[in-house]
Fold this protein.
Amino acid sequence: MQWHIIHSVTLEKPVMGDPCNGCGVCCIAKVCEIGVELGDDVNCKALMQSTDGSFECGMVVDPYRFMAEDELETWKAIDDIGKAHQGELALKKLHADMLGAGRGCDSDDDAVQEYIEEALAREKSPPGL
Ligand code: SF4
Ligand code: SF4
């Protein structure tokens, strides 16, 4: 992981189980399996930050932007035969369900705190110096 990215987190992480506020710490600390599939297990290519500081998962809000064209054939075929972007909507829902969207923060509080402390410590004393 790129430790300095921790500074892009501006929202305080809610307690595990409380509603997700998009603080982004979980995705910065560890790229999930869906993100790894995009080809980078250090910095998720789909992590998007809004002007209010919150983060969104691009694989939920705009998967067509991040996935390869050959992976989208089925979904686009559904778009072509249906109405109102049914394939794209189904793909967004699939990713949201896989990630547990809407079920609250699922990131362990202690693990996240450890990550933040390690990131800040590495910044002060980079390994090898
Ligand atoms: S799941 Fe938790 S740590 Fe991850 S973005 Fe949401 S609130 Fe932040
Ligand atoms: S794919 Fe989405 S949920 Fe997974 S690490 Fe990337 S931004 Fe986070």
